[in-house]
Write a structure and sequence with these properties.
alpha/beta; Aspartate Aminotransferase, domain 1; seven-stranded mixed β-sheet; three-stranded antiparallel β-sheet; 39% helix; 14% strand
Length: 375
Amino acid sequence: MNKPDKNEEIPLMKPFLPPIEDIQAYLVRIWESRQLTNTGSIQTEFEKALCDYLGVKHICLFANGTLALMIALKALNLKGEIITTPFTSVATAQAIYWNSLKPVFADINELDFNIHPDEIEHAITPATCAILPVHVFGNPCQVEVLEKLAQKHNLKLIYDAAHCFGVKTGSESILNFGALSVLSLHATKVFNSIEGGAVICHDEFTKKTIDALKNTGLDTNHELAGYGMNAKMNEVQASFGLSNLPYVDKVIALRKIASLKYRQLLKEIRGLKLMKEPDFVRLNYTYFPVIVDPEKFGASRDELSVHLRKNNIVTRNYFHPLVTDYPEFKIYKTRDLPVARKIADNVLCLPLFHDIKEEEIVRIVKVISSVNRNF
């Protein structure tokens, strides 16, 4: 095997693509049936395969994860305030806004970057209708604690599980917690259907409601079941997802090997903190974030990022800025968010993908070490 050129760019991520002949078989079916969308046989097959793989009862497929989250909130007929995290994609807050709900931002936990249950409780008001935690970087929230908190205050609990394909706590899918969980199947995720999203629910009535809402509100009898939108997944996306599914366990295993290599090599570098991996959890290794302590490391996160880019290594300050840094959502900030601010200002995601080579990881760490020594 040829070693990579030291000047060759190492991207932040690479989508996994199934063998082209795998998807061709599905495309032949599409050409024969001429059904491109509107819940065709391939999408139906994809839903069943995902339920079996993920260990969930019901799944509703969408064109993308943002639409899935928007419809999930709509399906619960919520009114008032939703408590969520500022350390997430802006899409989380956008879904709240587009449902005419008010986002309320609570601070996060420094160990796992997830929303802190105590901060949620402090943010609850008579107007609070739901809690929308995010399993950040696929690392599960404190689901049992949040469940008790939601029950105590009679609140709906919906999880933004965009990063959580295949993640389990114990033997249970993390997607089975809360009233609803929402997945992203975007190309940047561990498992993808090019674009795509999904809502996981626990009963057939809720599935029928969500399926109607994503079909402009029309149910299977073509009666209007509510104010919906066109958010359906098409047959090509479903074909791509079905073609990818047989390879996802191998993809996760390869990402785990890469993550362990990073941890082995980075542990000797002063001033870098790694996200705590919880016990009894099957992770999917969707990202590899590090937290830079400028005083101990000797350089800031931004200085490190620039130096890596000069060496053809692509990184991302993810999640930065905070959602509450955008003017459109800053107006909803009602309290200080010191932990989220600290993490957002110092987090850096390193390259991680299924076929990253050990030599590339070694090269990345050497560049990081040179910054650590020279700044």
